[in-house]
Specification:
Helices cover 57% and strands 3% of the residues. With 474 residues, the protein is mainly alpha-helical. Helix 9 runs antiparallel to helix 10. The chain starts with a helix and ends with a helix.
């Protein structure tokens, strides 16, 4: 229908084709040869447009690029044209930085999301020095006797640093002069503690959230263990922390909503069959292998998440030499505790169908994704793995494209627990071990209710069985 509509519109006005096979001029082809393959794929539609407009690399001006922007927004029947332009803008500017012969024309990138977190450079050096000292203490590198009993992991330190920057920025946006924030102690006075939390509450519609509760608890800890506030002030902060905290161990409403379609066994089957379905589509596709490599990669990522529902950071960083281990004719996914968020080691036997999928991908498609020699299962732009954000976004997209479902990699952990508990209601200990929870209380808090439908069916079956038995006795 869309194709016919596009052809009908083309009879009355200019319509930019969704796909074009128009040639690219030799001058642009020469430039393409010197840039990354995937960047070239993104830029080709623009370069076809510039060639059709008889614009050479030497003649390119910002007006020519904006003309293409206008064309894809006004004259092309594609969803999210601004997102397409934003991706192209990023890619063009990257080529400008990395390829000396690229046309020296930068595209101003429009940032559409609200950014309220200020850079550290907007604050006094004394504050950043105090923050650095706090980081040193929390990392365990400072061996002072009053240091933390357990040093923070680098990922946790990164989160805490961001929270401190959010708190300082919130104060500035609520009217506090940056020159009045000389140290962390100036952030965690009771008055400013309330000011930061009120700012975050207002951003969240006046109700608390995990972000607000975490910030309250964190700043109270800084006030206690770093700034050394008095007991009366700490007691007042503690009461506020209690009011704003959320039961984070419960599954969120959003995740419960996203899991609801999986109450239908047909939806579960569609999801579990997805890796092999993607593989079949890739093998039927007649395009060159390098154009199908990402889709093949997604088949492997989903297959691993289904049988070993690890966190996205562990999935993205799988190293074929260190983490995929052969023992006794079987393949294991092994990740040591130092690499896992809660220090619980991961050790899964991979089923043969998943091993077959891994071998298929590693031999036929992974080589096209490697830019620099490395052992990453999901190689990125450099010599290391793909970013967690990039891999997660691709997984989300492929599931949406094939099933129409709202999905993300972390939901796979919840979904694995739900699918198992739907078949075995109440067997939380198995889910705890698979997901690597340290406490069974965490598992039961999150998944109590996730298997409500199947538990209800089991309950009804027992009651009906008793009813039938009593009727037979009569």
């Amino acid at each position: 229908m869309r194709s016919l509509l596009g052809k009908a519109l083309a009879l009355t006005r200019t319509v930019q084709p969704g796909r074009s096979s128009d040639p690219i001029s030799p001058a642009w082809e020469e430039l393409l040869a010197g840039i990354d393959f995937h960047s070239g794929v993104r830029l080709k539609p623009l370069l076809r447009f510039l060639t059709a407009q008889d614009v050479s690399p030497a003649d390119t001006q910002i007006d020519h690029l904006e003309a293409y922007h206008t064309a894809i927004v006004n004259d092309r029947l594609r969803t999210a044209p601004e997102a397409t332009w934003d991706s192209l803008t990023w890619c063009w500017n990257a080529c400008l930085r990395e390829a000396p012969s690229w046309p020296q024309v930068a595209i101003a990138r429009v940032v559409r999301r609200e950014i309220y977190v200020l850079p550290w450079s907007d604050f006094l050096p004394s504050l950043t020095a105090d923050v650095d000292a706090w980081v040193l203490r929390q990392s365990g590198a400072d061996l002072s006797e009053d240091g933390p009993p357990k040093p923070l992991r680098p990922s946790s330190l990164k989160t805490r640093l961001h929270q401190l920057r959010v708190a300082a920025s919130a104060l500035v946006l609520r009217g506090v002069d940056p020159t009045e924030i000389r140290s962390l102690a100036d952030i965690v006075t009771l008055e400013r503690f309330k000011l930061v939390l009120q700012f975050l509450l207002d951003r969240h519609g006046g109700v608390t959230s995990p972000q607000v509760g975490q910030m309250a608890s964190f700043l109270k800890g800084v006030a206690d263990h770093w700034a050394g506030l008095d007991d009366v002030t700490l007691f007042q902060m503690k009461r506020l922390v209690g009011r704003l905290s959320t039961n984070e161990r419960k599954m969120t409403v959003k995740n419960r909503t996203r899991l609801r379609p999986f109450d239908d066994p047909k939806t579960v089957t569609v999801f579990l069959d997805l890796p092999e379905r993607i593989r079949a589509d890739v093998e039927r596709d007649k395009r060159p292998a390098k154009l199908k490599a990402i889709r093949a990669q997604m088949a492997v990522a989903l297959a691993l998440l289904q049988v070993a529902p690890v966190r996205i950071s562990n999935l993205a960083n799988i190293d074929m030499g260190r983490h995929l281990i052969e023992r006794g004719g079987k393949m294991y996914l092994v990740i040591e505790e130092a690499e896992v968020k809660n220090s619980e080691p991961i050790d899964f036997i991979l089923p043969q169908n998943v091993v077959d999928l891994l071998v298929w991908y590693a031999k036929s498609y992974r080589p096209y994704l490697v830019r620099q020699a490395n052992q990453s299962l999901f190689p990125g732009a450099g010599a290391g793995p793909k970013s967690t954000h990039g891999l997660g976004a691709q997984i989300t997209k492929v599931v949406r494209d094939y099933t129409g479902l709202a999905f993300n990699p972390h939901l796979a952990r919840h979904l694995g627990g739900k699918i198992f508990l739907d078949q075995r209601p109440g067997e939380y200990e198995v889910v705890r071990r698979v997901l690597g929870h340290k406490s069974i209380a965490t598992t039961t808090a999150i998944y109590t209710g996730a298997e409500t439908t199947s538990a209800g069916q089991h309950f009804a079956k027992v009651i009906d069985g008793l009813r039938t038995a009593r009727a037979g006795d009569r």
